[in-house]
Amino acid sequence: MPNSANNADFMEVLKNAMPFQVIPENLLRDIAAICSSQSFAAGERIYNFGELADDVYIVASGRVRHVLGADSDPKRHEDIVHANGIFGWAAVLEGQNTRLATTSSLEDTEVVRINGKALTALFRDNPAVGDVVMSRFATMINKEFSVPQSIASQVPSFKQALKATSLQGSEVSTMALTVFRISTWLQSPRPYLMLIGFALVLSFWYLSVQVWELPRFVDMPGLTEVFREWFSKDPVYGLSVYTPEYYKHIGISLRRIGIAFALATALGVPLGLFLGWSKTFREFVFPLFEVLRPIPVLAWVPLAIIIFSGSETPVIFLTFLASFFATTLNTMLGVESIDESYSRAAYCLGASRFQVFRHVVVPGALPYIFTGLQISIGVAWFSLVAGEMVSGQYGLGYLINTSYMMIEYPKIIIGMITLGIVGYSTSAMVRMMGDYLMQWRVRELALGDN
Amino acid sequence: MNAVANDRLGSIEDVTRGAIKIDDVVKIYDPDGAAVMAVDHCSIDIPAGEICMIVGPSGCGKTTLLNAIAGFHGVTSGSIYLDGEMLCGPGNPQAQPGSDRIVVFQNGALFPWKTNLDNIAFGPMMAGVESKKEIYDRARSMMADAGLSGTEHSYPGEVSSGLRRRVEIVRALMNHPSVLLFDEPYRALDSLTKSVMHEALLEIYYKNKVTIFFITHDLEEAIFLGHRLIIMSSRPCSPKKIITVDIPHPRDYSVLTSNRFREIMDEAKDVVNEEARKAFDAGEKEG
Q1: Is A170's CB within 8 Å of B193's CB?
Q2: Where are the domains of chain B?
């Protein structure tokens, strides 16, 4: 039967046990409150292998023989636990609810018992301390007991478990991350605010054009008219989601964006990396870059048409230009933003200049590179539409411009909304690509959000 | 652990690598022609395996000295030797950074884009001498030894700052350095974590004897960890007083309340306060 002892005695025992030494007084008092003590005569069994692992034991006085594994196991390991030592730690391991060893007292022994579940619950409320204690548990298990190392890795970790259960472990797939994000997003007020935002704008459009008929809105196509046309099987102006022409416009615009964006990335990222990395290269190229960069895309239109033949290449060139500048500049800023300690640390660890570039400069600049790519895809659409309005046969910009000339106003709005949706999708794709390449950042942010 | 092993723990006699000799080093910064002397004819001898605590007011030029040993910048005159070999000196003012002297940085410099395990494997992977499997097996077992099991696949940003510091030390030790250079690594930690880190550092040190060049302005930390304190004068930086801490290793937190600890503390405090006041009067900035 457990003896009664007062909490001050328990606290004294806890303070002498290595993993508990770091616990602040108030938490120690809570732990002492769930302690009980028990004595065993010399030679008495304390528990057997395979029994339910409920309590953790601290030896207050005496010695305990600790034999790992079942009686029949030929490779059993024996350890002696002295005063202040801890055994019975199977009770705090994750995924372990039976005893891993058989224990018996070698002499008259006093032990303090702490319920494993209650202890983990206390640590869950104090994750910072809990993690330190558990990491000490792992150290102790490895050092004092002849056990396979994998056992110590079963000690729980509270901070992570608390904040993002779905993010733990090594094999976090992008899928799991996406699900995690969507579920937190749905729990926040954001999606509902977003819906309200959309509803407000659409109802203003509907009211101003079709109900109030405000003076300058007379020629503007109404909400219902546009949507009827857009989803009509037999559209008045020949363009709806059922006509192949609609997809041809989207497809051609997307192809131009794809080519221009790929070119801008393939040239802009390396150029930006080198600009940030090599001072000499930078002094050589950057001033020229700075003079060309502020020239608006529209100013390039005549030159683009003169230089490039046909209708396709000038548009792609114009789309490429703005993207290229955005990507290059952000990549360069990214390299400059990398804390000097990282490259110093890499040099200390014996990395060569090229290895520093590959393992520090490139991954370190990635967050900025992807910010750059986000901007780049945005300005790409901007320049694309500008280009398509001037030159080209198809494309969403061309669609909007010709619809205006032909006085087919609903098609303008259809083109605009489509641009919005397609543009948003491409930028979401760039963002997902970034998340995939920067798992470390996603996990940091996910932890920080809660 | 038994008593015989305990006696050997604090001893540095059997350490053969990592003696640093700083010989008459001067470092003058010359921003825009206005020469600022950061280190003034500084000579320090550190025997192999010693934990040498460099104590001084903020901005006194301690870090300049550390950077010169690490090879992050050069010296104006004087020379620095590691085990008798010149790192920098006349004709070669800047040392080449290398894995024999590894810095543990003030704000930590684990690569946030690599997992803890990949961070720890980084040095040997760059050297490319061992096979990938050998490196990762070694990294895992070193992590387990340091009580870091279970955090292998976490990114540094996901674990506590105390744990990060430990990973950083293990990352350094993976390369069998002869010297670890600590640049006030525990400055930003709260006192609970700090005390855990001190014990953890000593534990690691007893297992892997290396010379430790440790910069701090925390006297308690300095006396608790160090074999010797070298108290530096305020800028320009040079040794002002050397105090041998004759409290035997291995130490634990009970030494903080011992009389000898108090005595050393009082002795050091007088010197440090005087220098701190000088630095304050001179209006030195943090750094």
Answers
A1: no
A2: 3-100+177-281, 112-176
Dihedral Cα A373, A379, A384, A389, nearest 10 deg? 180
Nearest Cα to Cα of residue A85 among A54, A68, A110: A110
Contact criterion met (CB < 8 Å) for A440 and B114: yes
Q: Which CATH number applies to B3-100+177-281?
A: 3.40.50.300
Predicted structure pTM score: 0.68
ipTM of the complex: 0.88
Min Cα separation A165/chain B (Å): 12
- In B56-154, DSSP assigns E strands to 77-82, 85-88, 101-104
Based on the fold, state whether residues A236 and A138 are members of the same structural domain. Answer: no
CB contact under 8 A, B162 and A157: no
| pLDDT tens, N- to C-terminus, chain A (450 residues) | 444 457 888 888 888 887 887 787 888 888 888 888 888 888 888 888 888 888 899 998 888 888 877 665 555 677 888 888 888 888 888 777 788 888 888 888 889 999 888 888 888 877 777 877 887 787 777 767 766 656 666 777 665 443 443 344 434 556 666 777 788 788 888 888 999 999 999 999 999 888 888 888 878 888 888 999 999 998 888 888 999 999 999 999 999 999 999 999 999 999 999 999 888 999 988 899 889 988 988 899 889 889 988 888 999 999 999 999 999 999 999 999 999 999 999 999 999 999 999 999 999 999 999 999 999 999 999 999 988 888 778 999 999 999 999 988 999 999 999 999 999 999 999 998 988 888 888 777 666 543
Q: A155 and B153 in contact by Cβ < 8 A? A: no
**Which residue from B minimizes the CA distance to A20?**
B196
* CB contact at 8 A, A142 and A67: no
Name which of B70, B155, B158 is nearest A348 (Cβ-Cβ). Answer: B70
Identity of the residue numbered A333: L
- Asked whether the beta carbons of residue B126 and residue A355 sit closer than 8 angstroms, the reply is yes
Name the amino acid, one letter, at B91: G
Interface test with A, best of B104, B122, B136, B202 (most A CBs within 10 A): B122
User: Domain residues for A376?
Assistant: 221-449
Q: How many angstroms from the chain centroid is the CA of residue B183?
A: 6
Q: Which of A166, A105, A125 is closest to A31 using CA atoms? A: A125
Question: Is A177 domain-assigned?
Answer: no
Closest-CA residue of chain B to A137: B147
